[in-house]
Amino acid sequence: MLLWYTRGSPYADKARIAVHELGLVDRVSLIESQDDGRASGRTWSQMPVLVPYNEEPIFDLGEIIAFLNHEAGGGLYPRDPAAYYRAIAMDMVADRAIKAAVVLAEAEADPGQPRDRLGLNRLWLSINVSLDILERDRFAGAPCASEFSAAALCRFLAAHWPERFSATRQSHVAGWYAAFACRPSMTALTAAAGMRGRPPSEG
To answer: In the chain, what are the domain boundaries?
Structure first.
């Protein structure tokens, strides 16, 4: 299988974390995207693209995670019904915060656009509300999709707003991330790309 990813994109980070945590490193070839058509140079919102064997590319991140989980034999979500639905909910919470963080980072990085302070504050509020919800959760046991999303979120926040993230009031989330960041699936995110190329285009 081939997985095209864009360095720095939290969406791509989530997929790459899943590849490692699901034990698919030997079955998925990672290719760093070189899509020069993105003139802005800010590629944080770019989604990964999975080409499973010689089949049609998968562009939807949720479908990519589901396909990887299937290839790994399942087990990405807890079997206990209550734990399963909680993991789904936490995954959605983290994904919502990732979307807000990407929009915020792109807005702050564009010097040519007037700053909408109210809009930026609303994005921070959305991120903090999501972090508060994740703070009340207690990640335990084998990592699942919600942890992949939370790790991608925390990595993006720490990269773009290190002082603000280090001073976060969500001490459990920060402590959990400090430990999770040492896992091989996370340290691999900083490794040099083995291959580079243009990803397939949708449609």
So the answer is: 2-75+186-197, 81-184
